[in-house]
Design a protein that fits this description.
By secondary structure, the protein is α+β, with helices and mostly antiparallel strands. Among the domains are: 69 residues, Alpha-Beta Plaits (2-Layer Sandwich); 89 residues, Distorted Sandwich (Calcium-transporting ATPase, cytoplasmic transduction domain A); 152 residues, HAD superfamily/HAD-like (Rossmann fold); 124 residues, Calcium-transporting ATPase, cytoplasmic domain N. It contains 25 helices and 26 strands. The strands form 5 sheets. It has a 7-stranded mixed beta sheet, sandwiched between helices. Strands 6-5-7-13-8-11 form a 6-stranded antiparallel beta sheet, with no helix packed on it. A hairpin with a 2-residue loop joins strand 20 and strand 21. The protein is elongated, with a radius of gyration of 33 Å.
């Protein structure tokens, strides 16, 4: 068996991806095929003894799409311009069509020579031509509808295709009759129905595709985390080379402030490296000989030499890209009410129309009467309102979410948020602020706390360590000026040494104190700081310990109250972090959380998400690159707005202003939106089902017969009811 990922062109909606996936999985020699709409790819496992890539390309083509060959990760140009212009053209044409056909109903002036009663020929031909242009511009919808019908998988596009086609062809028939002199048919033209439905559907698809392509582009930009160049050590000479020139086994030099170029193992040197985009841990990890380093991580201090091990597609970054891509291909068991109903509704209506036509033609031998019955049933049961029921509510609800600072990128997320059983939170940058701050200073000197902070900040101002940033920022916030520092020296893995005037300072960890034989007193303070989740900074002045400074990440404001609200909704809250057990436990205790999973890699996070999904829908809330796989794996991925690009674009929901209390708003809006959609679906069917028996001629003996014009009016009322009901969502505060 062999696996291949093909790049697919021509997919515009979920119907396309599901249709192609079903078609591929039916082919002999294909063990499994998964089509990813986000990445426009088909991940295929096939028997290479039976099939080759050319065969797979042909399968894709027979399904109505085009294979662009093996998928390659890279930045692609935006492809929205043409679709945007099409949407603008459809909008202008639809408004013009509406005015021509409806202006007389609201006492607006008619366009000269296009009055339906005075100039019926001009009127009908103009509407025919304009509607034809709309249908041509929206031909992908009609094409998908027909294609899914052929493959026996009718969906929303199929409903739209049948509805618009029925209205259009009956109107075309009416136009032909008008040209023959039967001007009374001018009252039976329904071109505007075809055009407006296409218009609404195109708006929804444009928004959906725009978000989809943003996700794709952001995922592809992930490779930019790694530097373009690196320093290669060869024959004791240093050479600047590109990443592509590095081979497995090469020795690479990384200096302070530079990024690790490829995955490898340190063979010389000691340093601290920021790997937060992988581990989620805010404090840089100490690295020494034998330690593994990951491409894209930042070297804070000390020059190191490491041996290249994983390069290109084998690197950790590339693996994360693959996992996100795979996770977005996984389909959650989401109930698509309209699609489920349509799979029965559409063939049932077609069958009823045919049976009614055959019955009445057999009874009356009147072809015109039988066609009237056939068209009336199709028009009265035209699923236009059904096609609008869900997307209208979703669009309005999405707008409401945006007003409340919740950016919802997929209708599935909005539909399912109220069903969530478990919400999994990343720790660093999500439950916490993601920035180190001074939490406590133990002062053992005769100087004031501000004076000690001034001296320490003056020294640390020359360091690039994150803890140093926390110290300096704290001094700036208090408007504490810095002093002149001399003889500054960074001691890799330990801390720093410097002089201020004639005073000597050692600032760093316990080992730095022990190395310089500086007596450590009040060890209970060190233990207390450590147990409270702090990194401890020892400050020695002239070989005497004068202070301990605790630095830690802090919990977001009101986070405990926010989590309590979620718990009151019977939602299980879980902390899932790459950070260490002790720090995670401290934060969890502060927030009142009992379910903690620490020390997990991005891959392990995704595996944990899969386990939770067995008990119900799972939402994942995170902000870092290390969360991207989990965000894509969860039923609903939620990122805060200051998260990394890949986290934001792997998520289905973005919380603006980093306000996690919006999670409660999202669940509430999801609940009322689903209720509104169900109401819309009811009204979408109510008029239709009520009138189908009449359209079928069952009440003909009582001289009650429904002609296509009245059927169309009923259909219009149904659509209008759906629109008005969906608009009620705007009143929600």
């Amino acid at each position: 068996m062999k696996k291949i990922i093909l790049s697919i062109d021509g997919m515009t909606c979920s119907a396309c991806s599901s249709g192609l996936e079903k078609y591929l999985n039916k082919q002999k020699g294909i063990k499994q095929a998964t089509v990813n709409l986000i990445m426009n790819t088909a991940n295929i496992e096939y028997d290479d003894k039976i099939l080759n890539q050319a065969d797979l390309d042909k399968f894709v083509e027979k399904a109505g799409f085009k294979s662009l060959g093996i998928y390659k990760l890279g930045i692609e140009e935006k492809k929205h311009t043409l679709e945007k212009y099409r949407l603008i053209a459809i909008s202008i044409l639809s408004i013009f069509i509406l005015y021509i056909s409806m202006s007389h109903m609201i006492n607006l002036p008619s366009i000269p020579y296009l009055n339906m009663h005075k100039n019926p020929v001009n009127y009908s031909i103009c509407l025919l031509i304009l509607t034809l242009f709309v249908l041509i511009l929206g031909k992908n919808i009609l094409k998908n509808g027909i294609k899914n019908l052929i493959h026996l998988t009718p969906n929303m596009d199929t409903l739209v295709t049948i509805g618009t086609s029925t209205s259009f062809f009956y109107s075309l028939y009416g136009t032909i009759m008008i040209l023959k002199g039967h001007t009374n048919f001018v009252e039976n033209l329904y071109f505007e129905s075809s055009a407006i439905v296409i218009f609404f559907i195109k708006i929804g698809k444009y928004i959906e595709n725009k978000n989809k392509n943003k996700t794709k582009e952001a995922l592809q930009k992930l490779v930019s985390i790694t530097p373009k160049n690196a320093t290669l050590l060869k024959d004791n000479q240093e050479y600047t080379v590109t990443i592509d020139e590095i081979k497995k086994g090469d020795i690479i030099i990384c200096k302070p402030g530079e990024k690790i170029a490829v995955d490898g193992t340190i063979i010389d040197g000691i340093t601290h490296i920021d790997e937060s985009f992988i581990t989620g841990e805010s404090i840089p990890a100490k690295k020494e000989i034998g330690s593994k380093v990951v491409a894209g991580s930042i070297n804070y201090e000390g020059t190191i030499k490491y041996q290249a091990e994983k390069i290109g597609k084998d690197s950790t970054i590339s693996e994360i890209v693959k996992m996100v891509s795979t996770a977005t291909s996984t389909k959650a068991p989401i109930a698509k009410v309209a699609d489920t109903v349509s799979s029965y509704f559409v063939p049932t209506i077609i069958l009823l129309s045919i049976l009614a036509f055959a019955f009445w033609f057999f009874i009356t031998k009147d072809l015109a009467f039988s066609i009237n019955i056939f068209v009336s049933i199709l028009v009265i049961a035209c699923p236009c309102s059904l096609g609008l029921a869900t997307p209208l509510a979703i669009v309005i609800a999405s707008g409401l979410c945006s007003q409340k600072g919740i950016l919802v990128k997929s209708s599935e997320a909005l539909e399912n948020a109220h069903k969530v059983k478990t919400i999994v939170f990343d720790k660093t940058g999500t439950l916490t602020n993601g920035k180190l701050t001074i939490s406590k200073i133990y002062n053992y000197s005769n100087e004031s706390e501000d004076e000690i902070l001034k001296q320490v900040a003056s020294v640390e101002n020359k360091s690039e360590h994150p803890i140093a940033y926390a110290i300096v920022n704290s001094a700036k916030e208090k408007n504490i000026g810095l002093e002149n520092v001399t003889n500054f020296k960074a001691i890799s893995g330990y801390g720093v040494f410097a002089q201020i005037n004639s005073d000597e300072f050692y600032i760093g960890n316990r080992k730095l104190m022990e190395e310089n034989k500086i007596k450590i007193q009040n060890e209970k303070h060190e233990i207390e700081l450590t147990e409270n989740g702090n990194s401890v900074l020892f400050v020695a002045k002239n070989n005497t310990l004068i202070a301990l400074i605790g630095v830690k990440d802090t919990v977001r404001n009101n986070m405990k109250e926010i989590l309590a609200k979620l718990k009151n909704k019977n939602i299980e809250i879980v902390m899932l972090t790459g950070d260490n057990e002790k720090t995670a436990s401290y934060i969890a205790n502060e927030l009142g959380l009992t379910k903690i999973i620490a020390n997990v890699s991005p891959k392990e996070k995704a595996e944990q998400i899969k386990k939770f999904k067995k008990a119900g829908l799972v939402a994942m809330c995170g902000d870092g690159i290390n969360d991207s796989v989990s965000l894509a794996t969860a039923d609903i991925g939620i990122s805060i707005s200051n998260g990394t690009d890949i986290a934001i674009d792997s998520a289905n929901v973005i919380l603006m202003n980093d306000n996690l209390d919006k999670l409660n708003d999202l669940i509430y809006l999801s609940n009322i939106t689903i209720k509104n959609i169900k109401q819309n679906l009811f009204w979408a069917f109510f008029y239709n089902i009520l009138m189908i028996p009449i359209a079928g001629g069952l009440l003909q003996k009582f001289n009650i017969l429904l002609n296509p014009m009245i059927a169309s009016l009923s259909m219009t009322i149904s659509s209008l009811t759906v629109v008005l009901n969906a608009l009620r969502l705007r009143r929600i505060k």
